[in-house]
């Protein structure tokens, strides 16, 4: 028995977007694979629900919708865990190191990228995730983070500078598309 066309389309979207979304979630979470996996899973659950909510306005671009939802889910999960700014004395030490499974799954370049991402401050990683991956405007990101737009701009600029030499690897891993990260 074959799946209805809507289910086939959803399955195709899942197969196409899962790995890039996981890479993006790992980036935003600072290498915390468990948080990233939970966020991607929750985003697809929300996608499935929205997919079947015919009373809501249609989604124009599912990849963009999923990207934004994944970033928000990562941030929500981190805030539920206590804070986006983790206390290194009480937080799981393994989360501060590169997750071996994360980079082995996506080639050796992942290790280099994750090491660089981990070096970003939490604010730099959050504003980069919100703007360059999630597609949020700098003003909206600053407002949700509770900081001034100028401060958010500085965090974004510093994150871009810190990651400039791994931009090609970020693109290869699916964390950013060719046009992303230059907003």
Question: What does this protein structure show overall?
Answer:
The chain has 183 residues and is mainly alpha-helical. Helices cover 67% and strands 0% of the residues. It contains 9 helices and no strands. It has helices at 5-29, 33-51, 62-80, 100-105, 109-119, 122-133, 138-145, 149-163, 167-173. α1 packs across α3 and α3 (62-80) runs antiparallel to α6 (122-133).
Would you spell out the secondary-structure blueprint of this structure?
Elements: H1 5-29, H2 33-51, H3 62-80, H4 100-105, H5 109-119, H6 122-133, H7 138-145, H8 149-163, H9 167-173
Helix pairs in contact: 1-2, 1-3, 1-6, 2-3, 3-6, 6-7, 6-8, 7-8
Beta-strand fraction estimate: under 5%
Task: Tell me the number of helical segments per DSSP (H or I, 4 or more residues long).
Answer: 9
Broad shape:
globular
Written as H for each helix and E for each strand, in order along the chain, the element string is: HHHHHHHHH
Low-confidence stretches: 84-96
What is the mean pLDDT?
A: 79
The beta-strand count equals: 0
> How large is the radius of gyration?
16 Å
Characterize the largest beta sheet: strand count, sense, and whether it forms a barrel: none
Helix content: 55-70%
State the distance separating the first and last CA atoms.
Answer: 46 Å
- Based on secondary structure, the structural category is mainly alpha
